[in-house]
Amino acid sequence: MKTRKNRSIGAQGVGIAIGIAIGTVVGVATDNLAIWLALGVSLGIVFGSAGIFQKSASEKRRE
Fold first, then answer.
1. What SS3 state is found at 2?
2. Which pLDDT band, with edges at 50, 70 and 90, does 1 fall under?
3. Can you tell me the distance from the alpha carbon of 14 to that of 57, in angstroms, rounded to the nearest whole number?
4. 10, 20, 37, 46: which is deepest, by most CB within 10 A?
5. Distance between CA 61 and CA 7 in Å, rounded?
6. What is d(CA 48, CA 10) in angstroms, rounded to the nearest whole number?
7. CA distances from 16 to 60, 62, 63 (A)
8. pTM, to two decimals
């Protein structure tokens, strides 16, 4: 059984990976990779953390 800490690390990791992918695609398309890669990582961290909080809130409601 996974602990809450392991799930939070996994959610942030997925968010960062998706942010890197999106930032790379947009950065290559606009020929400004450095800015879009940094924005993608930042947004990935934000959305990964938001997913963690959403999951924890829904788990609390079940209890």
1. coil
2. very low
3. 19
4. 37
5. 18
6. 9
7. 25, 28, 30
8. 0.69
Calculate ∠ Cα 39-43-47, nearest 5°. Answer: 175
Please spell the DSSP secondary structure of 22-61, one letter per residue.
Answer: HHHHHHHHHT-HHHHHHHHHHHHHHHHHHHHHHHHHHHHH
**Which pLDDT tens digit goes with each residue over 17-41?**
999 999 999 999 999 999 999 999 9
- Provide the pLDDT confidence category of residue 13 given band limits of 50, 70 and 90: confident
Which residue is associated with the tokens 């400004």?
32
